[in-house]
Amino acid sequence: MEQQDYLTVLTPFETELEIKKSRFIGRVYPIQDETEADTILAAVKKEHYKATHVCSAWVLNTVPARQKASDDGEPSGTAGKPILEVINKRAVKNVLVLVIRYFGGIKLGAGGLIRAYSGTAAEVLNHCEVVKKQFSDIIKVEIDYTSYGGLMNVLAAAGYKPAAESFGEKVGLDFEIEVRKTGGFLALIRETTNGRFDYAVVEQRYVDIPFLN
């Protein structure tokens, strides 16, 4: 199956809102699978053992996307589902979002709970660092010194920048290229160097690309 690019969060992040004297602590975590989500959730419940509720939702980068939501004792559909809807609206995957509630003595009603949980989830996702996971070919290129300056200018104009460079008998250039663009990338090098280059695709993996949240 072809690997698809996706958006996710780079690191855990936390925000907090106070709504009618209740504390709503929002947290987001990058995850790889359901087991990791369960482990984090258990640890947070232990950390916040005095909290009234620890509601959650997660979405995995699978086809179709696997997802799960928990109201953790809040009225059905007022907590986990609103959190999940925010995650899906942001189109992020491999993420776990938790909203920890400390009850402040004032009941919010179903509508108020939905707004509180979705608002807290949106707050933490609005302020965390989001990255694009781009499935890429990791390519090592070797060229002669005589080709270096001209090739670098051509590649820069096309939007390609090496992840690393080395200088020995020849110039070594390491690139992280989106898989679907590899053919065009190599054709550009071939044309610019008149075919005087060597290359190897050493692996395929996801690469973090900055994304404006």
Automatic annotation (TrEMBL):
One GO BP annotation of this record: regulation of translational initiation
SUPFAM superfamilies recorded: EF-G C-terminal domain-like (SSF54980), Ribosomal protein S5 domain 2-like (SSF54211)
Domain UPF0029 per the UniProt entry, residue ranges: 141-196
One Gene Ontology cellular component annotation held by this UniProt entry: cytoplasm
Family matches, as InterPro entries: EFG_III/V, Impact, Impact_N, Impact_N_sf, Impact_YigZ-like, Ribosomal_Su5_D2-typ_SF, UPF0029_Impact_C, UPF0029_Impact_CS
Annotated Impact N-terminal domain residues: 20-125
Similarity section: Belongs to the IMPACT family.
Protein name as it appears in the record: IMPACT family member YigZ
Provenance organism: Eubacterium limosum
